[in-house]
Each structure stands twice: as structure tokens, then as C-alpha cells.
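Notes continue from the previous slide.

Worked example: a multi-chain complex. Inputs as given:
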Amino acid sequence: MNEAAGKVAPFYAVELNRIANERQRRGLPVIHMEVGQPSAGAPAAAIEAGHRALRDCPQGYWESGALAERLAHLYRERYGLPVDPSQILLTMGASAALVLTIAVLFARGARVAVPRPGYPAHRNVLHALGLVPLELDCGSETRFQPTAAMIRALDPAPAGLILTSPSNPTGTMLPEAELRAITAACRERDIRIISDETYHGIIYGPRAHSMLEYGPDAVVVNTFSKYWCMTGWRLGWAVVPAPLVDVMRRFAGNLFLVPPTLSQHVALAAMDHAAELDGHVATYATNRRLLMAALPALGITHIAPADGAFYLYADVGHLTHDSLQWCRDLLDATGVALNTGKDFDSVHGGRFIRISFAVSTDETAQAIESLGRWLEARKRA
Ligand SMILES: Cc1ncc(COP(=O)(O)O)c(C=O)c1O
């Protein structure tokens, strides 16, 4: 067996999701706040476009030039950035964009810095491809994000750095000044940046900045999974610096051929339905407000100040040091499924939970009530 495969940690969200689904099959109620996916689907008109494409197009190997152009235009609209359509590489979700980028940029054995807590696949893909993840311990004092000072302190300098802003699991964003400072530190030390911008579009305050605004050499990955509510359609993209386009395309073609044809038709249509999608973001904003107001009253007071995404990362260290078992017990008693911080932080994660609030506002209110009753009963027991 490949020794690196053994280093890939289990995904606890999947285990909790399996228990939640089993419970549902037995006819018991469940509120799914354990997995990072919108409960809404793609815009209705985009699904209609999918039906038409199924009828009219052969669904062969195909890459949509129109979609690449539309995405290039998105960078002009959102960030005022000139991106050429040839720089847009369509992939099977951000996941495939990450695998491709990491495989192309770094030699085996290279060290790549990742924040902890952070999205587990970053660390695990590095392991799987024979690279060495260098975890940066990011606490509440830096809003769970890395800083330029942390990057400068790394000796020797790593080959790369993966940033996620807004982050999964915390939803916190890197402030603009820090993005600039990190870019400068990386440029000085020849550290290549991969910017995972999966949650752009789901923002509750000032707009998110793309890393491309500061470091045109960065590779940006993004996806239709979150803002566009298309998780199962498996479509994402990378914005690739011009000198890397050829090699990235060669890798993409050999590893994955093309992303799903039908999904490309649906995604192009979905891009014309911002009003419907922004409506979902407004629901997340309401859910976030409800939770931020209710959790402190339930004694959960240390919560990362989420600027975007649809997660709250909360310290429950005063209640448990085994948040996986705590989540299992909560699910068993109430049907409210949350995730353990252990997926995102193998050191401190046992003290943390992640709440995904991409559900309806009714479900959010019910979850708060059930959690409150359960905590009260545990206190009495
Ligand atoms: C930060 C981050 N990057 C990438 C992904 C993978 O997304 P996709 O469904 O596009 O593969 C996720 C999914 O949760 C994520 O949170």
C-alpha cells in the first residue's frame, strides 16, 4: 500500500452524516447541520436549461467556452480584475482543482503550509500526493487565520501556502491589509500561494477580496458547490497564471478528461440567477444572526466571528474535550446533527464544534431550541 494513504485521517462529518441518515431512515427527525452543503438546489431556471441540454446535446467530452468566458467576466464584475478566459480551467469541483494545482506546483516531499483549523482535504491531499503539510496553529487571537508574521517565522521557507478566506470551519476572512502583507512575505520568500475561494459570494459584511488582486501568481480555486448550490453537480474551476496554463491543462486532460457536460450547461444558466441565490445568502444571514444571539444564552460564548461561508466554529471546551462523542450524543438525543472540530484541527479540535447553518430558518430555530433543552437536561443530570 502507498504509505501516504495511511496518513489520510477519517472524515468525521461523513460518519455523523451516516448516523443522521440512518436515523432518518428509521423515521426519526434530523436537522442536518453537520455537512457543508446548502439545503437548497440549483436555481429552477438552471435546472430547466439542464433539461433542454439533455434533450438537445449529445453529452460527450466537452468544455464550455461560454462558461469560461462568463467566469472570466465574473472576476471583472466582482473584483475589477482582468482574467482571460484561457486562464479558467474547468474542473470537477474545487476538489479536483486543488489536486491538479498541488500536483503541478510542488515536487514530492515539498512542505506546504496550511492553517489549523482548516479544511481537512488540503492537508490530506498533500499527504496523498507525497507532500508534507506544515500546520500553522491559528487561534482566536488571529481570528483562526494565518498572518504574515507566521509566514516570515517559518524556517526554512515552505514551497507553498494554502489560504481559505472565508475559511471552513470558521467563516472568518483575512483582512485586506493581512492579505497584502502575506502576499509580500510569500513573494520575498518564493512561496507559491493557492487561494481557496470556495465561499466567495456568501459574505455578511464587506466584500471578499480575491488573492489575485494582490498576487497575480497565485492559483485560485473555486466552485459551483456553495454559492450556486450545486454540490452534487461536481463543477468548479481554477484561475491559472498564464505561464502555468499549458501544463495544468495537460494534467487536467490526463487525470480527469473534462468535467461533467450537463453540469456545465446548468452552471452557465445558474450564473444568470443571482437574485435567487442571493435570497439563500439572506437566509443564511438570518440563521447566523439567530445562532449568534442564542448560543451565548445557552452558555456557548466563544464563537469565531464568521464574516462569510455558512459555519459557526464554537469552543465547547467547558462542556467536553471529546466533541465527536458530544456530537454523537446530541444527535442521538435530539436529531440535531453538528460536526466535531476534530475534522479541522487534530490538536485542539476535541474542544470545538462546527455548526453548518445552510438550512432553513425554521430548522435553525428548532435546532437552537433542541440544543438548549438538551444542554439543560445534561446540566441537571
Ligand atoms: C474550503 C473548501 N474547499 C474545497 C471544498 C470542496 O468543494 P467541491 O464540492 O467544489 O469539491 C470544500 C467543501 O466543503 C471546502 O470547504
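Summary box: The CA atoms of residues 114 and 310 lie 21 Å apart. The chain has two domains: 3-41+274-376, 60-270.
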